[in-house]
Amino acid sequence: MMIINKLNDIINNSQTSDPRYMISSFIKQNILIINSLTIKEVADGSHVSKAMVSKFVKELGYDNFAELKESCSMYVGSLGLKDRYFQLDSDFRSNSSDLVVRMNNLLTNTVHQINYNDLDMLVEDIRNCSCLFLLGHGEAKGLCSMIQIELDALQIPIIVVDVDFRKEYRIGDHAVFLIISVNGNTLMYNHRTITKILKQKQKTWLITCNQEIAFAGKKIYVPSVDSTLNKINIRFVTDLIIARLQQNQE
């Protein structure tokens, strides 16, 4: 799902006359068939040159156009795997009641199974850091924005980094990196970004529902009894962390 975040970042932060905007818009609008298009067809559809498309591909972090197309194919394939909360053969009321029961079971299990020592260590690192650098892709990116608003209110320095960690950031000695990856896809599909972050030699944390994912930093595993509700589970745990930070400031 990384490609869609890269495209959205450009679309949301560029002028419509910017060639990067035009290429991003064309690819996003045609992402279902992009694998069958040539670089010339993308250039013509975006009203730019082939050389501009090649430059754009490199700027996104891909070695060549074929690699970008592969990333698009992975995103398209993931669309059919998105979790759905409701059953198609149940009505609105029944689905809503069932969801409440499932959420209660999920969060009750999390409260009893999560490692509170790890949570407290993360809270302490955030409380004492010079700046918290936050990374989240896909569904976790919106969660990062919410966390930023809450920590701003607590006057805790925080920056939500760009999806490829390409910008130049002033990273102090006591900075902390926090990666939020609901199912671990960020680590599986964005090795370059994770490698860049780990090379910073700062404390780095990961919050995920994927127990099996390998990570060189510190990891908070969020246990889940219902993988379709992992996004809700991660949101719950981040709310617990924020509540703990608020408690510590009172």
Automatic annotation (TrEMBL):
Gene3D superfamilies in alphabetical order: Glucose-6-phosphate isomerase like protein, domain 1 (3.40.50.10490), Winged helix-like DNA-binding domain superfamily/Winged helix DNA-binding domain (1.10.10.10)
Any single Pfam family the record assigns to this protein: HTH_6
A GO MF term: carbohydrate derivative binding
Annotated TM spans: none
The HTH rpiR-type domain, residue ranges: 1-79
Gene Ontology biological process terms from the UniProt entry: carbohydrate derivative metabolic process
InterPro entries recorded: Homeodomain-like_sf, HTH_RpiR, RpiR-like, SIS_dom_sf, WH-like_DNA-bd_sf
PANTHER family for this protein: GLUCOKINASE, HTH-TYPE TRANSCRIPTIONAL REGULATOR HEXR-RELATED
Name the record gives this protein: HTH rpiR-type domain-containing protein
Organism encoding this protein: Thomasclavelia ramosa DSM 1402
